[in-house]
Amino acid sequence: MIPFTRPGLLAKGIANLGEAMASGKLSGDGPFCRRAEKLLEEALGAKRALVTTSCTHALEMSALLLDLQPGDEVIVPAFTFVSTVNAFVLRGARPIFADVRADTLNLDETHLEALVTPRTKAIVPVHYAGVACEMDEIGAIAKRCGAAVVEDNAHGLFGTYRGRPLGSIGALATQSFHDTKNFTCGEGGALLVNDPAFTERAEILREKGTNRSRFFRGQVDKYTWVDVGSSYVLSDLLGALLLGQLQTREEIQGNRGRIWKRYAAELAGWATERGYRLPIVPAHCEQTFHMFYLLMPAAARTAFIDHLKARGVQAVFHYQALNTSPMGLTHGGKAGACPVTERVSDELVRLPLYNDLTDDDQSKVIEAVRSFTA
Ligand SMILES: *Cc1c(COP(=O)(O)O)cnc(C)c1O
Fold first, then answer.
1. 31-44 vs 11-23: helix axis angle to the nearest 10?
2. Which residue stretches of the chain are H helix?
3. CATH number of 260's domain
4. Which residues touch 326 (CB under 8 Å, ≥6 apart)?
5. What is the pLDDT of residue 216?
6. How far is the CA of 228 from the centre of ligand 1 (A)?
7. Of the residues 104, 176, 242, 288, which should be mutated to test ligand 1's pocket, given the most ligand atoms within 8 Å of the CB?
8. What is the pLDDT of residues 335-348, one digit of tens each?
9. How many other β-carbons are positioned within 10 Å of the β-carbon of residue 305?
10. How many domains does the chain have?
């Protein structure tokens, strides 16, 4: 079976891991984590990168940093992973589900004006599949209503919007290093702090509410409990794996780009004949080749997934509409409120795409796809 995703190109990380184990420094905020953070800061121009135990936790840190109070509103796309929303709901905020654009499947910025209220505290764009949201428009509306922009950049590391790195545009941004993402250490994430007003408190929240980071930099002579917080630091063993993946980024992105473009080139004709749609990437967005998907009518999709499975190829759908999920319905979501999201979540299917997918395996996938004639 050719899986739809699998971690790959881990050799450098495994070498680093050996070094980290031998050093005896296994806990969080260690030298490998710091090197991974430096690499992210330099590549993205972020003021501070803090690696975390997951993207979910980086989103939770964002919600804490924004001091959200019960009843505050946070605008989120209905087409995303649950953590984009959960992190804010955990703080008592009210999620306001926005529909997505039919082309990029990103938060539809043209709906924002109608959704903002005096209680809007944050807007959370998700760069779906690593293709940028319309950040100029989103930023302008956020500025006008005094809301913070938190980029959920789980798919978008090393992508750009009008030449600007994704993850460097919002006041805060979050990354995921879960093993389904382009770069992985199994489970892991990062909080990117672009507004320096948040830096010191972000370090404290991540270190159980203590000023331990300042202590280690010699800025205070003993460390103590100063704020709420939790344990969001990443073990240096995972930091070592992560650094290796980031050091291999050109090869990883090069491979993924080649695989993505081959799918696009070899499936375009087949898809057009059947009225199926391939991903759309606007010219001002450099994408990250996080996923290759097809949109096809719901009935065809079920048959298509079965057809591929019978030929040893795993294809999967992605994201149930959150506004119609059991949790979403108890948090202001309504069926029919986000028509594009609800349609796309019935129509989208992802093909295998991972760092070391071989040409031969990709040929098998393409052959299996093209033999679907329903
Ligand atoms: C994967 C993902 C997350 C969660 O990442 P974890 O590191 O698993 O917590 C959040 N948002 C989006 C859009 C994701 O794809």
1. 140
2. 11-23, 31-44, 55-65, 83-89, 112-115, 135-145, 199-206, 212-216, 236-247, 249-274, 298-310, 326-329, 339-347, 359-370
3. 3.90.1150.10
4. none
5. 87
6. 24
7. 176
8. 999 999 999 999 99
9. 17
10. 2
